[in-house]
Amino acid sequence: MLPPPIIQTPPDSPSAYSPPPSTPSSPPHLTTNSPLDPNSPNFLNLPRKQIRSKSVPHARQVLMDMVDSTERNLDGPFRSILWQKYVLERPKVTELKCSEVRWFFQEPKQTVWTPFNGRDSIMLEIKYRKEKRIDLDEAIQTIYDETLGHYKMDHPEGSEDNSEEKPMVVVLNGQYKVNKENSRIDPIYWKEDSKEIRRGTWFSMDYQPLEMPLSDSIEKNHLQCFRNQMIPEGTTVFSKSETSNKPILAELHVDGYDVRWNSVIDISLHQKGNAILRYLWAKTTPLRRGYEREADWNDASAEISHLILVVHGIGQKGYENLIATNANQVRDGVVNAMEKCYPDEKSRPMFLPVEWRSSLVLDGGLTDNITIPKMSSMRASLNSTAMDVMYYQSPLFRTEIVRGVVAQLNRTYKLFKANNPQFNGHVHIFGHSLGSVICYDVLTQYSPLMLYDKYVTKSIDEYLEKNDSENTKEARKAMEAMKLAREQLREHMDGGIHRLLVTNDEQLNFKVKYLFAVGSPLGVFLTMRGGESADLLSKATNVERIFNIFHPYDPVAYRLEPFFTAEYKHIRPIKLFSQADLRARASYADLPLDVYKHYLKKLKNQKKAKNGKDDKAADAKSGGDDEIDEEDECDSDEDARSGCSSPRSMTPPPPPCDVAAANKEPKAVVKKGWFSFGSSNNNPKKTQSSASLQSQVQATSTEHIEVGKEAEAELPLAERILGSGVRVPHRIDFQLQPALTEKSYWSVLKSHFAYWTNADMALFLANVLYCKPAKPEEAKPTWA
After folding, report:
1. Among residues 517, 358, 360, 543, which one has the least CA distance to residue 446?
2. Cα 577 from chain centroid?
3. Where do the segments described as Disordered lie (predicted)?
4. Using CB atoms within 10 A of its CB, is residue 689 exposed (0-12), middle (13-18) or buried (19+)?
5. Terminus-to-terminus CA distance in the chain, angstroms?
6. β-strands 267-271, 257-261: how paired?
7. Biggest alpha carbon–alpha carbon distance for the chain
8. Eight-class DSSP state of 774
């Protein structure tokens, strides 16, 4: 049954009214000259009770209320003006605008539908309507013409041969693409994480979308029955007393459901079935047309200002999507830190996973074939973790691993630039565990074959220096020719031998600003290669700065600063502030050098021994290494009671000994274990030999560094400990703070994988990337 039509143009005056001719679309039960017709000359003069009859549409009731609110003696023409104003201002039933439709996605194994943001929803709706050849509304058509013309969505479905050349419609921070059927979004940068999507036009009361076929059927019938009728305000036209006796203006039977229209906005969904069961269990579901908020084109993901490529380490075999989860965890932590600490920053970083292990062949499964079947679970775990390190140490498989990592890095960057052509920010690499070593080797263009080249050069020189009569002249002449050819190759070929050893397949197609080496064994790898400070940050390094971030209990992580000068082992790495401390927002560049407490104790005890006490007693008082390291992790009992993850966030603790008296320094120089940092020497000097370093340590402990009395009073203790050794150009080692409960073997094992959700590290990354320290008056400790 169709509802009575509402005539939208009232007469100029009731006395001058002439009824319009009847049309075939007029319902048979209500003629055009009926007293209940709004165009009737007696409509506004009807008794109020008759106007309130359920047979009268709600629009006329609202009109009567509006007229009654005016003065009673107003004449007919004014009432006609009110009617015209009401008709013109009220919305009418027409096709939904693109902004009124909302698209949703559903996580796997979840039942709740999550709405896309405004821009993603509009992009999906434009794609849907272009493919269905449905016209866009004026506002969205303007947006499409101005900003989305390069998507070429106007091409018909039959001409999709060049679909690869079209830009993808990407959503959710540009990490997912939409399939051709508009039913699913697939990840762009990783695998097996698809999500179902749904177009929402009709919704339940909690604005969860109905299934698309059901919504389309309801929408079609709604437009057929109520097109151009006025939409009243609110969610219902009936009072509480009228809910039990609503008229049914239209009804639709589809897909096991009954849809009933009691008014333009009173629509309900009923499940078909036995009348008794329907009475006992079935519930009536009120429906809503259009989403509760219109989609806004400006409601979009934040602008991307930094791209961070997250490279995994060991243990990813069989867990290809784990790095995607970890990358999102780091991104969520950084974004949360920025929202709290940098609310004025509108841009955001993008963390993209780089999964390289699954694409490698390596030994073709030979290791699994030779694995002993006993204790298979433990052996399988070792094969998927420790074997990756052994593969990388092998000259046979190392090249395959490096090329695989480089290929995935270049692929991810290329895809990102294709979907974000306007990006002009910096690119960084976040390498975890073995991944940091591989990325470091790629950035420094390291090749183990260079060691063999040096060995060959040395062997040739040693051969030619010998005066062995057994060496024939021909062999000596061939060796000299080989040496000459190698020298000419170095002189005339750009890059020399190194250019031959490092191919284009092992080089990145973009520049990297920062390398975040997290839980990295890079230090021990460099040690096995005989590396020095000049090798750590060579001129050929394609990276501006390295941050070596580690947990103190991580058994895989190593420091890097002692490569420059051995005495850096007595200097603490920078301990990151707690994310609850305002000073964590400031730069770490101006922090002073801190000396380990156990080394201060050692200096004090050696001082006592020099004054005539027993050396053994002094050594016993200095404590063992384990006890000393434990103490250096937590500065004082106050830190432990505070529950704060960073000792620096609390009041500087008192020293365990009178360091000033032990070293005969003014108290102004040494304050409770905190030491000022003098100007660092940025001009690297030649590293001292081990003998000279040992003698300098001895001089530090027994002679207090013979520098003269005046200079001794001015130099900070840390500077005197480092002596004339090579200084780091900037701090490299950064240490996270352990929780109070992290003192078990299990904590040691899991600390290597605890970086992804660490809030202190997330704020540190935000600090480094955006370099917006807090104002001086805000940079106060939390205890102040």
Report:
1. 543
2. 21
3. 1-41, 607-661, 679-703
4. exposed
5. 74
6. antiparallel
7. 136
8. P
Identity of residue 718: A
Q: Measured between alpha carbons, how far is 320 from 192 in angstroms, rounded to an integer? A: 9
What is this structure's pTM? 0.74
Tell how far CA 717 is from the center of its chain: 42
The amino acid present at 394, given as its one-letter code, is: S
d(CA 566, CA 265): 79
Phi, psi (rounded to 5 degrees) for 173: 60, 25
* Nearest C-alpha neighbor of 390 from the set 402, 399, 380, 398: 398
Let me know if 216 is exposed, middle or buried by CB neighbors in 10 A (0-12, 13-18, 19+).
Answer: middle
Residue 209 is classified by DSSP as B
Report the candidate in 430, 434, 675, 622 with the shortest Cα–Cα distance to residue 543. 430
Instruction: Enumerate the β-bridge partners of residue 103.
Output: 199
**777, 564, 562: which is closest to 686 by C-alpha?**
564
Amino acid making up residue 166: K
| Alpha helix ranges (H) inside 394-472 | 395-419, 434-444, 449-465
Predicted confidence (pLDDT) per residue in 603-635, tens digit? 777 777 777 655 554 444 444 444 445 545 554
Question: What are 355's two structure tokens?
Answer: 């999964």
Give residue 397's identity as a one-letter amino acid code. Answer: F
Question: Among 187-201, 387-401, 644-658, 703-717, whose mean pLDDT is lowest?
Answer: 644-658
Pairing of strands 574-575, 733-735: parallel
Interatomic CA distance for residues 174 and 120, integer angstroms: 10
pLDDT tens for each residue of 191-250: 888 999 999 999 999 999 999 999 999 999 999 999 999 888 888 888 777 767 788 899
Cα separation, 606 vs 584, whole angstroms: 37
Q: In the block, which residue shows the tokens 């704020």?
A: 763
DSSP 666: -
User: Residue 167 corresponds to which tokens in the numbers above?
Assistant: 């830009």
Residue type, 436: S
